[in-house]
Amino acid sequence: MATTNADPIGAALQDYLTGAQEAVITVYSDQTEPDEIPVHYLFRTWAQMPEREQFALEQCRGIVLDVGSGAGSHALALQEKGVEVTSLEISEKACQVQQERGVKNVLCGDFFTLAPIPHDTLLLLMNGIGLAGSVDNVPHFLQTCKKWLNPAGQIILESSDILYLYEDEDGSVSLDLNANYYGEMTYVMEYKQERSEPFKWLFLDFDLLQQYAEEAGFSAELLLQEEDAHYIARLTVV
Predict the structure, then answer these.
(1) What are the structural domains, with CATH classification, of the chain?
(2) pTM of the model
(3) Cross-strand partners of 122
(4) Cα separation values, 210 from 165, 177, 222, Å
(5) How far is it, in rounded angstroms, from Cα 35 to Cα 139?
(6) d(Cα 72, Cα 92) in Å, to the nearest integer?
(7) Based on C-alpha coordinates, what's the Rg of the chain?
(8) Rounded to the nearest 10 degrees, how much is the dihedral formed by the CA atoms of 219, 160, 222, 103?
(9) Which of 196, 180, 211, 52 is nearest to 124 (CA)?
(10) How far apart are CA 191 and CA 22, in angstroms?
(11) Contact, 208 vs 135, CB < 8 A?
(12) Considering only CA atoms, which of 141, 125, 105 is closest in space to residue 57?
């Protein structure tokens, strides 16, 4: 059962910052077995980041908005490189952690409901497009992104094609053609006694991203494709 006003991720970030070095967030999904996120991973430095994240950060230009910024690690990495960046995070506890860590510009609130302030780059790492929740909501998500962008701005995003989860041993794929898009997941996060409400999260293959982007007036460019199905893409307004 979800805890009222639960913020398990924010609570875990605060505990880690005050000394709980072994803190772990438990992740439940409707499609996979329960998993764990060691909280120290959310505090990674530039040197500890996967190469794809380093690559994505190097693509940023102008004034950056780090959407869904968590503990603020990407914002701090950009700050250290002299980039002007604002971190946007819905968790108040996470926002407090970012401020304590030294993130200069922290915007606390909901990406979809805050009054947009245009930026040159929207940064959406750790499968940031997951915020869309479902393929049906991708058009609304992209139109919201457009409101946060300057006319010549760009979106740098990370996602992955999770079709491999449905592969059989012989390499064939088993999908229910009457079900929702295979990249739509439902998650619950838990830390200690705090458990979140179930929330939808989207993993979007690049071909489908490109289709939706073009319909929304963006051009989509595949910048990096990794063997584990992760990719980095750039969207720019046409």
Answers:
(1) 46-177+202-237 (3.40.50.150)
(2) 0.94
(3) 65, 155
(4) 22, 21, 9
(5) 30
(6) 13
(7) 18
(8) 80
(9) 52
(10) 12
(11) yes
(12) 125
The span from the CA of 87 to the CA of 106, in Å, is: 5
What is d(CA 66, CA 125) in angstroms, rounded to the nearest whole number? 8
CA-CA distance, 152 to 236, in Å (whole number)?
Answer: 7
pLDDT-derived band at 103 (thresholds 50, 70, 90) equals: very high
Q: How open is the CA angle 141-135-74, to the nearest 5 degrees?
A: 50
Would you state the structure tokens that stand for residue 28, as one six-digit string? 């439940």
User: Does residue 74 come out as left (phi exceeding 0), alpha (psi in the -120 to 50 range) or beta?
Assistant: alpha
Do 27 and 187 contact (CB within 8 A), yes or no?
yes
Q: Three-class SS string for 85-98?
A: EEEEECCHHHHHHH
Q: 227 φ, ψ to 5°? A: -65, -25
User: At 169, phi and psi to the nearest 5?
Assistant: -60, -30
Tokens of 202: 């989207």
Nearest-angstrom CA–CA distance, 188 and 131: 14
Q: Cβ atoms within 10 A of the Cβ of 186, count?
A: 13
108-154: pLDDT as tens digits: 999 999 999 999 999 999 999 999 999 999 999 999 999 999 999 99
Four-CA torsion 144, 149, 155, 159, nearest 10 degrees: -20
